[in-house]
Amino acid sequence: DAGVTQSPTHLIKTRGQQVTLRCSPKSGHDTVSWYQQALGQGPQFIFQYYEEEERQRGNFPDRFSGHQFPNYSSELNVNALWLGDSALYLCASSPRRNLREQYFGPGTRLTVT
Amino acid sequence: GENVEQHPSTLSVQEGDSAVIKCTYSDSASNYFPWYKQELGKRPQLIIDIRSNVGEKKDQRIAVTLNKTAKHFSLHITETQPEDSAVYFCAASMGNFNKFYFGSGTKLNVKP
Questions:
Q1: Does A58 lie at the interface with B, CB-CB under 8 angstroms?
Q2: Residues B105 and B16 sit within 8 Å (Cβ to Cβ)
Q3: What is the pLDDT of residues A26-80, one digit of tens each?
Q4: Is A97's Cβ below 8 Å from some Cβ in B?
Q5: Cβ of A9 under 8 Å from any chain B Cβ?
């Protein structure tokens, strides 16, 4: 079992561009949550997907959107990138029956220049 | 929404000493409090957790205590080892555990 995987590992974008990050959950997990971790800070909850729908959302603007596919994998899209969007983006998967069991992926390091 | 504060931001101890990291939360509805360890360049990993119906939980050298009245919880690491060096995050969640609120992290340095 590969655990949670994320791609790409690193990404450099320019202000105003759009980016898509990908996450494959741990085997047996059907719920995916996304977090933004700025340098030196704790992860901040962006949103959670289950059954291909957004179920919960944190305090992030509409520029942040997501999608979940029938195989439970998920994408995070960020439009009109700001310099402040530079961060480590973490995906965490859980089984719906036990959402406390959060298993994090290695993250995608996004740099916006 | 919930606000989790964590102290200290950095902590340096001698190998074999104990380390204590403290967190406070604002929403009395929070009922689940996990602690994560994040080594440099790696993913956060759950090391211990506690639910609001329990005051203390231990797992070998680590323990977590919860004071619901004061809305604070703490991580205790005894007999620290160099491999305990990492950033530790506390978090709080409520209800169906759909959303987790994290503290800002404590960088623990254990000196050999």
A1: yes
A2: no
A3: 999 999 999 999 998 999 999 999 999 999 899 999 999 999 999 999 999 999 9
A4: no
A5: no
